[in-house]
Structures are given as C-alpha cells and as structure tokens.
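User: Let's play a game. I give you a shape written as tokens, and you guess the letters that built it. Ready? Here's round one.
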C-alpha cells in the first residue's frame, strides 16, 4: 500500500462513467471477423470488423434509445443476435441482424409485449436454430421454444406446467427442467411428454443454492449435465451428473476457492465453464478467491492458456475462439488496466493488442485494489477489498463503505469505476464480503440466514471499526454507499446505527421488506423459498411478516438524522419506485432534508451514460459536502 506523496491526477466523472470506446469483443466462429460494442449516437451498439489489423469496422445495430449489452454470433455468418429491453424494464427481446444487408433494420424475433427471453442457447446439434425460454403465454411461466433464426419461426417445445424456472434441451430432443420443490429444494427433472409430467433426476438442498444451481449445462452427448455442486463439501466444485442414474462425479475442483458463479447474477460476466466452440466440450473452469484461477481441462487449451496469461497481469475475462481453436480474442480484468483486449494466433504464437476500452485512463492515476481479511466480532473471516487514494498518506482518511447487492453476490478484484472515483477524491474505499455473500463457501453463505439487519449488518460495522483501528479511516467521516441490497444496507445503516455514518447513498434499495416481497415479478415468486423467504422471511406468515417489518428501514425512519441521498430508476421491476418514494416522503414529512434523483428511463441500475454521469456527479458533490473529500470542478 503506497505512501508516496505525489499529487494524483484529477479524474472527471465522465472519464470513468461514459461509455467505453470499445468493449466486449469476440471472434466469429470462422475466425474471419471480430465483433465488439462501441458508441454510435451516444449508445453502445454492435460493430463488426475483419480480424486483419487494418480491417474496416462497420456498425451493424442502430439502437439510439438504450445501449446494447450482449450479442451472439450464430453458426451462419449472415446472422448475429442481440438482446435489448425497454428503458430498464428487463423485458428482454431477441433481435436478429442481417450482416449481409448493411442497410437492413434489426428484426425483433420475440415481439410480444411484456415478455422476456431467458436461457438463450445456440445448440451445436441444431444448426440454424436457437433454444430459448419465453413467457409470452403467461408472464409468470417460461415455456421452451425453438427458433428458426433465418425465418424467425418460433415452435413451442413444451408448455410450462407451472413450476419450472427454466428448461434445457438435449441434442436428441430430450427436455429437462429445473424447479423449486414445495419443500424449498432445487430439483432437476426429465420431462415425460406422453405423461405430461416431470420425473426427478436429482434434488439438492435449496438452502445451499439461494439463486439456484449454477452453472447448469448439458454435456454435448446429452447423457449428462455439468453443474456447480457443493454436495458434501463447503466449496462449490464442478461435477457431472449422469442423467440416467443421477450419480454425481467430480470433474474438477479447487482446494480453497469456489467455482466462479458470478454470472448467475451478472450474465455479462463470463461463465465459469470455458467450452470448445466446435464441440461444446470443456476446455477450462474458473475459480475465484482474492483473484481468479483458471484450471485447463484440455491439453490444447492448457497450451493456449499459458500464452494468454503472458499478455496481461490481470485475470482472464472474456474469451472466445474460432472453431479451429487457433485464433482467440480475450480480455482481462485488472484493477488499474480495465478490459485490455488482445488477438492471439496459436498457430504462429503472435498476439496484438486490439484495444483498451478506456485508453484515456492512466494506470498511474488509478488506485490499486488490495485484498484484506477482516475478522468479524464472532470470529468469522470477512474477505474484503481496500482501495486507498494514490499519492496520499493512508492515515485518518474519510472513508466510503461500498456494499454489494444481492445479497447473494460478492465483491471481487478488478476495475471498479466508483471505487476509482472515490479514491481519486481522497477517500479510502472498503468493500466487504459480509456473511451471506456467495463465493466463499457454503458456511459463509448460510451464516447470513436470518441475519438481515442483524449479523450481516454487524459485519459492516466491524469492517468500519477495523479500518478505524488500523488507522486508515477517520471515524467521524465514514459514509455508506450501496445499490439494491447495498441500498437496503445503507438504509439499515442510518436507521439501526445512525451514529456510525456521516452520510449515506441509497441506490434503488429496499426500504420495506414486506412491500418488496409483494412486488417482485410474478415469475420470481414461486422461487423465493430458497432465498428471500429463507434468509429474511415469508410475509404470508404473520410472525415472519412482523419480523420483516422490524428489519425494514421504513419502520425506523424516525431514527434517520444522517444526510441521505436516494437514487431510483422509475422502471425498476426488482425494487419498485415505491420503495424509494416512501422513505423520501417519510423524511420530508419530518422536515429532514434528503436528496432524491429519479430517472424515468432507467430500471434496476442505470445504463444510459448521461444518467450514470448525472448520478455520480451528484453523489460526488454530496459526499464532498458531508465528508470533506476533494471535488472536481465539473462535478
């Protein structure tokens, strides 16, 4: 942790939160082209170019309303697919782009109001087809469809009997479902078309899998399924389940780390399974502790990986290859060199940098993220990350406690633009993987059961005390800042422990657990038993309902005296605007000042760069006012 005293460069909010110049690159199956995301009319769109260094780039999508975040090559070089929702409503539609007709508009392949696509697969065994889950018939139920990509024809393969969370289709046409049982367990079952019923293949303790099993991927031969399992162990490892017998066989594991399952929460993050583009077989598995570890599971990929890891001192992030396994496009996670993306030719050993998403950022001006372990008051280790302002003596600093969402998510090492903004302004930044966070074993996860506004919050307070005791933080100048569950944690901070924090920023956070559980989307409600009902409570049970209210910040709103900023997307379907409206209204009724920002064209997290910039400028001003950090003139 550097104690050098040079004056750090001042970073603007725009430099950190505007769209990247390029990002999200991948190579085409035939190895001739590279696709990536880049701005067009102030929104990220998909661009395609030749792999040759001087290849001309062409923008192939034309969304001027909302940035595109994900796209998919298909086996036919003519077609490219991408998903888009409407102003943050999370009703994801699937669009097709005709790469052979530059002037043609994208075609909405799922033009059904109020519906969303999930679980998109492009099976190797069905050229020209896509398999997808779609809730067009009933918003609460996802049926399984086959899509003919060229014609747009949708064929229902099976109608949801009402209990299925998602479907998989084997190469031979056999169908499998994963669901939550009445007892709250997670079940994987075979669909019997003649009987119109499900036959269980395997069942797991639902309390071990609050977000369901991840990954869950049929093997290329259709005889097995690869899953992330913690059966009989504290750690999540990679196993293969025989679909005929239900027997579980370990494929790979790490002695200390869990399989990296962050993509269950953030689909834009890479899958823990690295698979062969041509065969679908396993090439590697990702594990995540303080940093990532990739285990090669294929001799050829082991050779490739040895070369890829020489390209960057970061962690391997996006990875794609052509069908031959010779040509690769990869990007890296790095705390001070975000998203550097390379082309690598394994046949020649040659590589070249394709781009850096934020070339204007000087890594010398950015703050390293350092893993630290903090002991909770009951002895539980809390894996955490500390980011200190560069060029400043790390002593007695104002500090911002950044709380991750979920709560079944985790903080991890890498570039965090908010942490960089705060460190640049002179704040120490602390991110804590409190109990209930995923990725640190089953015991750490399940220690959060029943502990919302309890030990989960104690962990955050213990982390603040640790930072003060170590001399990093000034106890009188600590803020709490979080989104989603992190927003709830910020509100808990100012209602349950109002003397700890000098300021708080709540982004789309839960203020009333009962109202929150009553307003989650219909398709989520049948699957609450393994997560919110287990960890927090079931509002249909009078005793648990009373406890939920007691753990809700709205019940203690009269305790708030900490300066508070609240931020909300009007189209948020996870934490509806009423959650923020009611906390703000209660404070204003008492004459307590509160800053409130609502964006009419956003949902659960802001996507449009002008909204993100507006939000973080306001937060920058707010924290400078109440913690005394540096502030940029443009903020």
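Assistant: Ready! My guess for every position:
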């Amino acid at each position: 942790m550097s104690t050098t005293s040079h004056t750090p460069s001042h970073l603007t909010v725009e430099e950190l939160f505007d769209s990247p110049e390029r990002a999200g690159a991948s190579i085409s199956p035939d190895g001739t082209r590279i696709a990536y995301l880049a701005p067009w009319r102030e929104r990220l769109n998909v661009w395609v170019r030749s792999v040759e260094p001087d290849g001309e780039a062409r923008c192939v999508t034309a969304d001027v309303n909302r940035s595109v975040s994900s796209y998919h090559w298909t086996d036919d070089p003519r077609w490219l697919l991408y998903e888009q929702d409407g102003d943050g409503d999370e009703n994801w539609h699937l669009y097709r782009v005709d790469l052979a007709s530059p002037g043609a508009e994208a075609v909405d392949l799922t033009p059904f109001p109020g519906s969303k696509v999930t679980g998109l697969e492009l099976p190797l065994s069905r050229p020209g087809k896509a398999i997808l889950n779609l809730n067009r018939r009933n918003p609460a139920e996802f049926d399984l469809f086959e899509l003919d990509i060229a014609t747009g024809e949708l064929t229902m393969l099976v109608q949801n009997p009402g209990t299925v969370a998602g479907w998989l289709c084997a190469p031979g046409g056999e169908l499998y479902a994963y669901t939550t049982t009445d007892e709250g367990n997670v079940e994987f079952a075979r669909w019997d078309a003649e009987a119109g019923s499900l036959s269980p293949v395997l069942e797991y303790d639902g309390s071990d899998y609050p977000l369901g099993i991840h990954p869950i991927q049929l093997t290329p031969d259709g005889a097995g399924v690869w899953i992330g399992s913690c059966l009989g162990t504290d750690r999540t490892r990679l196993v293969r389940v025989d679909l005929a017998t239900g027997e579980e066989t370990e494929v790979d594991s790490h002695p200390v780390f869990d399989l990296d399952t962050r993509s269950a929460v953030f689909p834009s993050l890479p899958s823990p399974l690295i698979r062969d583009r041509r065969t679908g077989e396993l090439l590697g598995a990702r594990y995540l502790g303080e940093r990532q570890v990739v285990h090669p599971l294929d001799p050829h990929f082991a050779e490739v990986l040895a070369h890829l890891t020489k390209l960057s001192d970061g962690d391997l992030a996006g990875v794609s290859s052509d069908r031959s396994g010779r040509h690769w496009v990869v990007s890296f996670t790095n705390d001070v060199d975000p998203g550097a993306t390379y082309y690598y030719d394994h046949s020649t050993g040659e590589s070249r940098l394709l781009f850096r998403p934020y070339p204007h950022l000087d890594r010398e001006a950015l703050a390293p993220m350092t893993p630290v372990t903090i002991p909770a008051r009951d002895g539980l280790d809390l894996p955490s990350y500390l980011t200190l302002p560069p060029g400043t003596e790390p002593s007695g600093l104002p500090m911002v406690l950044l709380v991750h969402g979920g709560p079944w998510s985790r903080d991890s090492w890498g570039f965090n633009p908010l942490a960089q903004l705060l460190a640049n302004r002179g704040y120490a930044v602390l991110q804590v993987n409190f109990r209930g966070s995923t990725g640190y074993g089953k015991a750490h996860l399940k220690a959060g059961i029943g502990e919302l506004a309890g030990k989960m919050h104690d962990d955050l307070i213990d982390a603040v005390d640790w930072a003060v005791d170590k001399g990093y933080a000034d106890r009188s100048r600590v803020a709490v800042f979080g989104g989603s569950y992190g927003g709830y944690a910020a509100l808990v901070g100012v209602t349950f422990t109002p003397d700890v924090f000098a300021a708080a920023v709540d982004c789309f956070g839960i203020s009333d657990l009962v109202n929150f559980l009553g307003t989650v989307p219909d398709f989520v409600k049948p699957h609450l038993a393994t997560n919110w009902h287990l960890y927090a409570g079931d509002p249909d049970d009078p005793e648990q309902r009373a406890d939920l209210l007691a753990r809700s910040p709205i019940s203690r709103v009269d305790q708030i005296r900490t300066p508070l900023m609240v931020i909300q997307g009007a189209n948020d379907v996870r934490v509806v605007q009423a959650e923020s409206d009611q906390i703000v209204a209660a404070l204003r009724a008492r004459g307590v000042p509160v800053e409130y920002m609502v964006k009419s064209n956003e949902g659960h997290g802001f996507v449009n760069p002008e909204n993100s910039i507006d939000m973080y400028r306001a937060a920058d001003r707010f924290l400078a006012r109440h913690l005394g950090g540096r502030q940029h003139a443009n903020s």
